[in-house]
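#lab-general

N.A. 3:47 PM
ok so I finally got the sequence cleaned up, no stray characters, all 394 residues accounted for. can someone with queue access submit it? mine expired

B.Y. 3:52 PM
send it over

N.A. 3:53 PM
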Amino acid sequence: MKIAGRVVLKKDRDGPVRGGNPWIFSQAIARAEPAQLATGDGVEVLDVAGNWLGFGYFNPTTTIAVRMLALGEGIEPAHIVRYRIRRALELRHRIISADTNCYRLINGDGDALSGVVIDLYRDIVVLQLLTAGADRMRGEIVEAIQELLAPRAVVERSYGAVRRQEGLADRVGVLAGESVSTTAVRENGIELRVDFEHGQKTGCFLDQRDNRALVCELAGGARVFDGYCYAAGFALAALRGRARQVVAVDTSARALEWARRNFELNHWVPKCYELVHSEAAQYLGQSGEHFDIVLLDPPPLARSLKDVPRAAHLYTELNRTAMGAVADGGFLMTFSCSVHFRGEDFLRAVRIAAARAGRNFRLVRRLGAGADHPTMLGHSEGEYLTGLLLADMA
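B.Y. 4:20 PM
back already:
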C-alpha cells in the first residue's frame, strides 16, 4: 500500500479512532490533503493538532470515508498486507482444532484489513474484496497468500451491495493456481462439500462452526429441527452427536440437494434424516410436531435500517412459532445475522415471542460467530451475528 495524502479530523472527533474503531465517518473529517484524493487512496490520519493516529484508505463518496489499517502502530504501509495476513494465520493456528481444515483467515476489520475477507477451504483460498481500498490491494493480497499458504488455487468471489455502494462491479474468477469449482473439507470432524460457483458467501457459512459444535454436544437422543438448513451443517452436527433423527427444512431445492449430498458424504442413511422443501415457520406452524432441539438460522431480515421495524415483527413471529414446537424440556437455538438487528434488539424480540407463545425459557448462553471471526474491541459494528440458546422450563 502507498500513502497518497492525509486526512485531518475535526476537533474532538478522534475519540473513536483512539478507542480502536477503524471506521471514520465523513462528518468527522475537517479536510483531506490534497483535495483531489482518489477513491481507495492510502492516507495518513491526523487529529486536529496534527498528531499521527495511523493510516488507512480513503473514499470521498461513501459515509465511511476512511477505513483504518493501522491504529497507532509502527508498521510501514508497504508491509501492512503481509503483516496482517501473517499475524492472522498465527492466531488461527492457535484456535482451530485439528479436526477442521476450513476457516476464516481474514475477517475484515476484525483482523485490521478492512473490506478484506479471506476464507481457507483446505488448500483453496477464497477472497472477497468489498471496498475500493481493498480492491486496490488485490495484487499484494494474492502475493502474500501465495507466499504464506502456497494454496492450490486462489479464487475471488467479490460481489454484493457493499461493492455497489463503493462503485465497484462484481468480480468472480480464479486469481492464481488451477481452476476449481468444488472441494471437500472437514469441520469438527464432519465432511462437507463446498461449492464455489453456487454457494453462499465464499462457498459456505463458516461463522457457525462453534455453534454447530455446541449442537453436537446437546443432541444425544434428540429429535432435531434444522430450519433454514442450507447445506445441513447443524443437522449433520446433531447426527454426529447421536441425535435419533433430524428434519432439515429449506425453501431452496438446490440447498436441499446439497444437504442430501453432505448426508451421503458422511454415510448417513435416509432413515436418520428428512429433507423438506418448505419455509421453516410454515412447516412448524402446520405440522404440529414437537422437537427436542429447534434450530433457526434465517437469512438477514433487516438489510438496512429502514427494514428494522418489519424485522422486529418477523423475528418475533418466527420465534413464537418455533417456541410452540419445542418439546417440554427442549432447546431453542435461534439467530439473527442482521447487522441492523442484533444484540439487545434481537433479545427483546425473542422475549416478546416467549410471552406471546405462553412459554417460559431460560437463557442458557448468548452465542455469536466463531473464534475465527474476531472483531475489534472498539468496533461493536463488527458483531453482526447474535444467537441465543434457550432451554424450556418444563
